[in-house]
């Protein structure tokens, strides 16, 4: 996955789009109580324990609305925060602080929730060779943020999009006519540096995929004993990936099977948010002239 800096360079237009969604013409509530610029400060506070993620995106929201906004962070992405921790303070035009609050928190809470859920699931595979992967089951226009959050939480990124790798699923196999034909056609079409992964639902498909020279064989929705037999059939000829309704509640039983990868759509589509809040907004006062 891309670094935090690269993510922000690529994500700027997405953040602006989110702001336009929330402010179609004006922020009526804020303009009613704050008709002119006034400097203020507000505190970002954690309301539950978890992994913080998305601080750069949170910061960028306020910078877009107020180029002079200043954010002081007391944690970094990937750190554990505790309930009631002061995570950051944001200083700037009060109008920007009020108008950007919801968008900034939406990003931060969502990304921190995914990082936390990933962290908790990834711990189940400590001490094994198995790597925890995300999927393309992401929120539209949120993939760059959600995949970054998975990596921050200790998971690994599967292909980013359809242009990023070959993964032949059941409908691709149906279109090609068979597992063998699908692998053969992919090998002929894709550059030789691209690995060919194929989804298999039965042991017969697994054998056919291994014999055809697939690089990665996805064991889709198989029970434990069937997966163990699939690994025996593959016998090191391909890497293995377990997939299908993997959640934090059932992932532990997959740790000792010996697959190379476990992929979970739940990391991005089912992770609850991490509760965070912007509190204690107040103007900044100069003792000589009053509010700045």
3D architecture notes:
- The protein is of the alpha/beta class and 292 residues long.
- The chain has ten helices and 14 strands.
- Strands 6-11-10-9-8-7 form a six-stranded parallel beta sheet.
- A hairpin with a 3-residue loop joins strand 13 and strand 14 (290-291).
- The longest helix is centred in the middle third of the chain and has 29 residues, at 94-122.
Strand element count:
14
What is the share of helical residues? 40-55%
Q: Which oligomeric form is depicted?
A: single chain
Order of helices and strands: HHEEHEEEHEHEHHEHEHEEHEEE
Shape: elongated
The fraction of residues in strands falls at: 15-25%
Radius of gyration using CA atoms only: 23 Å
> Would you tell me the overall average pLDDT?
94
CA-CA gap between termini: 42 Å
Supply the helix-strand structural class: alpha/beta
Number of helices: 10
Strand order across the largest sheet: 6-11-10-9-8-7
Characterize the main sheet. Answer: 6 strands, parallel
Low-confidence stretches: none
């Amino acid at each position: 996955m891309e670094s935090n800096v690269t993510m922000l360079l690529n994500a700027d237009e997405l953040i602006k789009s989110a702001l336009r969604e929330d402010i179609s013409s004006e922020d009526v509530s804020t303009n009613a109580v704050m008709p002119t610029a006034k400097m203020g400060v507000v505190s970002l506070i954690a309301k539950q324990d978890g992994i913080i993620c998305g601080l750069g995106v949170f910061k960028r929201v306020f910078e877009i609305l107020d180029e002079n906004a200043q954010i002081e962070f007391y944690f970094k992405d990937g750190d554990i925060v505790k309930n009631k921790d002061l995570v950051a303070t944001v200083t700037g035009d009060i109008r920007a602080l009020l108008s950007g609050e919801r968008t900034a928190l939406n990003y931060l809470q969502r990304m921190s929730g995914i990082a936390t859920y990933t962290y908790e699931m990834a711990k189940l595979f400590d001490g094994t060779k198995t790597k925890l992967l995300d999927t393309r089951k992401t929120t539209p226009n949120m993939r760059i943020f959600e995949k970054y959050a998975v990596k921050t939480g200790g998971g690994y990124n599967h292909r980013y999009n359809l242009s990023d790798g070959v993964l032949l699923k059941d409908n691709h196999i149906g279109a090609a006519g068979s597992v063998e034909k699908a692998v053969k056609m992919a090998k002929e079409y894709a550059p030789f540096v691209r690995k060919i992964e194929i989804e298999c639902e039965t042991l017969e498909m697994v054998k056919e995929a291994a014999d055809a020279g697939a690089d990665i064989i996805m064991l889709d929705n198989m029970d434990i004993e069937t997966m163990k037999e699939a690994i025996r059939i593959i016998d090191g000829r391909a890497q293995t990936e377990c997939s299908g309704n993997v959640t934090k509640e059932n992932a532990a039983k997959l740790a000792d099977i010996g697959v190379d990868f476990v992929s979970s759509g739940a990391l991005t589509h089912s992770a609850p948010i991490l509760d965070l809040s912007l509190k204690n907004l107040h103007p900044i006062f100069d003792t000589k002239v009053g509010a700045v």
